[in-house]
Amino acid sequence: MSASDASRARTRSPRVKSRSPSATAWTLGRAAKTTATTAHHHESVPIRESKRFEVPSETLMKRMGGPSDGKAGLSGGFRTEEEINQILYEGSKGSKFLEDQKRRDKDTQAKVDKLRGILAKKLLEARGNEEACADAILAQLEETRDLSRVITLVDADAFYAACHQLEDPSLAGTAFGVGGGMLTTASYEARRYGCRSAMPLFLAKLLCPHIKSLSLKPELYTRASKAIFSILEKYGPIAPASLDEAYADMTDYCANEGVTPAEAVARMRAEVYETTGLTVSAGVSPNKTLSKIAADINKPNGQFVIDPTAEACQAFIRDKPLRKCYGIGRVTEMLLNGLGLKTVGDIYKHRCRLYLMRDHLPFRWLLSLYLGLGSNSVKRAKRGDRKSYGAEKTFHPTSDRTELDNMIKRIAKSLAKDVARSEFSGRTITLSIKHDNFQRVTRAHTPGRNIWIHSYQDMVKYGLELL
DNA sequence: TACATACAC
DNA sequence: TATGGTGTATGTA
Q: Within window 155-214 on A, which residues have Cβ closer than 7 Å to strand C?
């Protein structure tokens, strides 16, 4: 029937307050991820004439650009977004991946229809006080506004690509990507052709035949990341968000040095460049939400500062497409589009219907987004904060039980190693299988409230049972 | 607790 | 020919 399973096993454990003497690893654990596959036979269906004229939906085409599409703006390219998506669509035609994308698109469309149905009904029962209710919540949220901090998001430009370019300056100005089968990063030159992160190499080559692909060198990135973060730390407490991104609270630095946020961040960026050779972009504002969006504005090697006034914050975010906001992905964007919203400003315009739909949408969160509010807490995650560990591997489709068993063992081995290193232990182990049609199923097992999973043997035992 | 989704990078 | 890996959060049953 269906093919290819990927399995993924992990242990999870709910957060446990360590009241017990063992201060170490009461935290949480998670185990292995595996990926296996089974053979897939599907009859070849003759293409009917009518099929030839089938036109992909607009939303499906939007998917073609990859998951990061719409988040980062692309400009100055050789092709339009439509041309790029068309090439990617042609290159993906007939693939199981595309079929899965179609399925997802359809599912989301169904959600949109359902939501619109609910809205239609709610509109009939509307009491007329929705605007007042929404405005009251807005006023309440406004009370919480805190403009006292200087919060910066620093984001390295084309980080992996830049790291390689430092090693090999001859790469400068050339089209290259980092990653074997899948690109983790595309150089700026490659981006002009439409190549993006998370794009498979074979598609990137359709867009840019001369693109060069470099293998990943993880040590290169972790070293560069540490170098960048240690500089940021001189300017205030930081909270890394990934290898190439960190928030910094520069309030005290600005006060102590008597400089404006713009000046402080310019110094920081210059220092990063001088000592690492890497350029970073930054956004500055009173909170993390706004700074994150702002960091994108003058990328690469630029910065954007939002003044610490309610007016500036609201004016900044009002015209931004919803998709630019952290937390709004493809699905949420489509749902909100379905209700008539495109930009953050539309949240206010449509606050009545959003109020009516408050049981189905994160209403207050959307209102605070409109106001340009957000957290300004910059705290480094602690060691024990981790909730899970996982490992996964994709392999060629197979339904051979021996092969699958071996894959489980291989993944368990890698996971057990990670877990051992961190002295982590988990109570729930989850096996996740990705079939060759990209559907995923997960199966979990919790042996007992006080039973902790951490050994390779246990992972294999439970993993094989779950398969 | 189990499972599926959504999201970020 | 061909679309990754790691982790968090949340809704629902």
A: 181-182, 184, 198-200, 202-203
Q: Which residues of chain A have pLDDT under 70?
A: 1-54, 68-75
Give the predicted TM-score (pTM) of the model: 0.90
Rounded to a whole number, what is the largest CA-CA distance in chain A?
73
**Total domain count for chain A?**
4
Write down the pLDDT at residue A192. Answer: 95
Q: Any atom of strand B under 7 A from CB of A326? A: yes
Tokens of A392: 């996964």
Question: Is residue A158 domain-resident?
Answer: yes
Question: How far is the C-alpha of A454 from the C-alpha of A424, rounded, in Å?
Answer: 7
What is the C-alpha separation between A110 and A447, in angstroms, rounded?
Answer: 38
Which nucleotide lies nearest residue A197, CA to C1'? B9
> Which amino acid residue lies closest to nucleotide C3, measuring CA to C1'?
A200
CATH of the domain at A237: 3.30.70.270
Place of tokens 């956004």: A283
Q: How many CB atoms lie within 10 A of CB A203?
A: 22
d(CA A316, CA A139) in angstroms, rounded, equals 19
